[in-house]
């Protein structure tokens, strides 16, 4: 899943501090797939979840499930709607974006690389939607970098995580990469650990480039950059913690250029400072989540 850097440059409408509306974990499949709702009612619900308050929108993953047939249509429609409401939309994939269902036509699952290409093609169909999977966008002296940042799951928790976390049943990778015969297998912790290393290597490299050019950095990931404070307090000390967050305190301590890091995945909203970096999440979660501090009209400045 490694790709070369593509650097896009944007110009803000107004000078001064940049405003970003940050949302994640919308899980639009639970709304768009509601059979009792009309398209107008679905659009009303989506519009109520995101009330534009800034020129730039960041979608920090788990927006929908484009790997299923209705999910692809919903995902495309949703991005088109947000494209029309914001100057620019910055998108990364969460783990749920890579969930797939078996096709009644081919009898196979869409694999993670195939879904990545699908998301890219959908994003590329809108002129102001930027898919930040190991990509960067420059706005003045602010470098925006993104990656899913799969978590670095502890080896002693590998079997437990694979048994308990749905990713390791719902995400598929090619059984024989490069083969002309379609076949796949469920992803493993060994796979996602490799993806984590690729993602982290990319982020570190981009931070170094920013520092060399006296640029500030905004990092967008799905998985959290630190453990403490990024999940609901009831999950403190959980054996599954490393499936949801990373321990990148050393990176933050060594990288003063990183001014803001936004994330999702944990269904827990937070706004805190770690080694002079603002760490922020505005996560909607499922409609039946027990509590949420999600704000539909808030923004951050940098």
Your description of this structure?
By secondary structure, this protein is an alpha/beta fold. It has a single domain (7-301), classed as Metallo-dependent phosphatases (Purple Acid Phosphatase, chain A, domain 2, 4-Layer Sandwich), CATH 3.60.21. It is 28% helix and 21% strand. It has eight helices and 14 strands. Strands 1-6-7-10-11-13-12 form a seven-stranded mixed beta sheet. A five-stranded mixed beta sheet has the order 5-4-3-2-14. It is globular, with a radius of gyration of 18 Å. The model is unreliable at 1-5 (pLDDT under 50). Residues 19-268 form the Calcineurin-like phosphoesterase domain. It holds the Pfam family Metallophos. GO terms for molecular function: hydrolase activity.
Sequence stretches where pLDDT stays below 50 over 5 or more residues: 1-5
Mean pLDDT: 89
Major sheet: size, sense and barrel closure? 7 strands, mixed
Which value, in Å, is the CA radius of gyration?
Answer: 18 Å
Strand portion, in percent?
15-25%
Strand elements, count: 14
Using the alpha-carbon principal axes, give the shape: globular
Q: Which class in CATH terms?
A: Alpha Beta
Question: Based on helices, strands and strand pairing, what is the structural class?
Answer: alpha/beta
Query: What is the rounded distance between the termini?
Result: 30 Å
CATH superfamily: Metallo-dependent phosphatases
CATH architecture: 4-Layer Sandwich
Percent helix = 25-40%
CATH topology: Purple Acid Phosphatase, chain A, domain 2
Question: What are the secondary-structure elements, in order, as H or E?
Answer: EEHHEHEHEEEHHEEHEHEEEE
Strand order of the largest sheet: 1-6-7-10-11-13-12
Number of domains: 1
């Amino acid at each position: 899943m490694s790709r070369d850097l593509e650097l896009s440059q944007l110009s803000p409408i107004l000078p001064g501090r940049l405003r970003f509306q940050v949302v994640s974990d919308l899980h639009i499949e639970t709304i768009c797939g509601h059979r009792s709702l009309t398209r107008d009612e679905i659009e009303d619900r989506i519009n109520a979840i995101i009330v534009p308050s800034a020129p730039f929108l960041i979608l920090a993953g788990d927006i929908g499930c484009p790997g299923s047939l209705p999910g692809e249509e919903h995902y495309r429609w949703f991005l088109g709607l947000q494209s029309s409401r914001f100057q620019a939309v910055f998108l990364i994939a969460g783990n749920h974006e890579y969930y797939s269902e078996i096709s009644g036509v081919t009898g196979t699952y869409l694999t993670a690389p195939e879904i990545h290409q699908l998301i890219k093609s959908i994003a590329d169909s809108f002129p102001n939607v930027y898919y930040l999977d190991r990509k960067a966008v420059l706005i003045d002296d602010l470098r925006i970098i993104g990656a899913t940042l799969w978590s670095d799951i502890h080896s002693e928790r590998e079997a437990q995580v694979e048994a308990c976390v749905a990713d390791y049943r719902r995400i598929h990778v090619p059984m024989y990469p490069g083969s002309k015969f379609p076949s796949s297998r469920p992803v493993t912790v060994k796979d996602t650990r490799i993806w984590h290393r690729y993602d982290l290597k990319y982020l570190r490299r981009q931070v170094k480039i920013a520092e060399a050019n006296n640029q500030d950095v905004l990092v967008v990931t799905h998985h959290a950059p630190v453990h403490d404070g990024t999940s609901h307090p009831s999950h403190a000390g959980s054996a599954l913690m490393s499936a949801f967050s990373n321990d990148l305190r050393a990176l933050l301590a060594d990288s003063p250029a990183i001014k803001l890091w936004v994330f999702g995945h944990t269904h827990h909203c937070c706004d805190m400072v770690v080694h002079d970096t603002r760490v922020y999440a505005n996560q909607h979660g499922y409609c039946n989540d027990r509590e949420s501090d999600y704000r539909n009209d808030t923004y951050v400045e940098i």
